[in-house]
Specification:
The protein is an all-beta fold. Among the domains are: 86 residues, Thrombin, subunit H, CATH 2.40.10; 84 residues. Helices cover 0% and strands 37% of the residues. The chain contains no helices and 27 strands. The strands form 7 sheets. Strands 3-23-24-25-26 form a 5-stranded mixed beta sheet, with no helix packed on it. A 4-stranded antiparallel beta sheet has the order 6-5-4-27, with no helix packed on it. A 4-stranded antiparallel beta sheet has the order 7-8-9-10, with no helix packed on it. A hairpin with a 3-residue loop joins strand 13 and strand 14. The two termini are 20 Å apart.
């Protein structure tokens, strides 16, 4: 069964706060803006396909349309200011309702397998939380990337310096070994840096990196979505116009075949647009697609 922890990428979404750059080789510390990253889609019902779901910051309520049968699930979990980080933390092949709280660095999770609540302090204000399975055990790990020093902190697994302030961290399996790789995309030069695997120029300033397996070879592909023209650029695979400025690209396999689909969510009208798949109104302005 396809895992939802997806080459999914990073839940860096819509976190465009100011970040302090680390000092490198005597360079002067500077302040730069962290660009937004694409949202990762989650599979809440364990059918192997991403579900259309949003989290509402104003109320902390999750609204999910299950892809398996079209039924709706709602769950109040989280408060305004939290970051939704839905993923499979308990290994039952279903995404759990989960948020990370920047003010205290605590992860709050409702396990889908038992309904039990799990809390874990991991991270500090200014960190960027990510979802991904970094040790191949079938569970998403508690992971943050710290812009101030470019370090990835994966609870109980690794502490790895990879990236600099202004980079966009991306969680994906780029070599098909079953583990998420330490990856950043650098807006200043459009280069992807995948630790120990690849350095690839793909994209330009203003693009949004999207990690997903678009050709079903088991590897995350180098892909960006360009807000200026709504075009998806997937290295060696596809160039596809889908979406308009202001949309949020969403990576995930929403059905049909084992490939990641071209999907955007439109904040202005709360509509999901999946190329050759669906047009579904689900959500309202201010929601966050998950």
């Amino acid at each position: 069964m396809r895992r939802t922890i997806r080459p999914a990428l990073a839940l860096v979404g819509l976190l465009a706060g100011l970040l302090v750059a680390p000092t490198v080789a005597g360079a002067e510390v500077a302040v730069t803006a962290s660009p937004a990253s694409q949202k990762a889609a989650a599979d809440f019902d364990g059918d192997g396909f991403a579900d259309k779901a949003v989290w509402r910051p104003g109320t902390g309520v999750w609204y999910v349309i299950r892809s398996s049968n079209g039924s709706v699930a709602t769950q109040q979990w989280g408060v305004s200011g939290d970051v939704p980080v839905a993923a499979d933390y308990d290994g039952d092949h279903r995404a759990d309702f989960a948020v990370w709280r920047p003010s205290n660095g605590i992860w709050y999770i409702i396990q889908s397998s038992t309904g039990a609540v799990v809390t874990q302090q991991w991270g500090t204000p200014g960190d960027i939380p990510l979802t991904g399975d970094f040790n191949g055990d079938g569970r998403s790990d508690f992971t943050v990337w710290r812009p101030s020093n470019g370090v990835w902190y994966v609870l109980g697994i690794a502490t790895v310096q990879w990236g600099v302030s202004g980079d966009v961290p991306v969680s994906g399996d780029f070599n098909a070994d079953g583990n998420a790789d330490f990856t950043v995309w650098r807006p200043s030069d459009g280069v992807w840096y995948v630790r120990g695997i690849a350095t690839q120029q793909w994209g330009t300033a203003g693009d949004i990196p999207v990690a997903g397996d678009f050709n079903a070879d088991g590897r995350a592909d180098f892909a960006v979505w360009r807000p200026g023209n709504g075009v998806w650029y997937v290295l060696g695979i596809a160039t596809q116009q889908w979406g308009t400025a202001g949309d949020v690209p969403v990576a995930g396999n929403f059905g049909g075949d084992p490939r990641a689909d071209f999907v955007v969510w439109r904040p202005s009208n709360g509509t999901w647009y999946g190329l050759n798949l669906f047009t579904t109104q689900w959500g309202t302005p201010g929601d966050i697609p998950v």
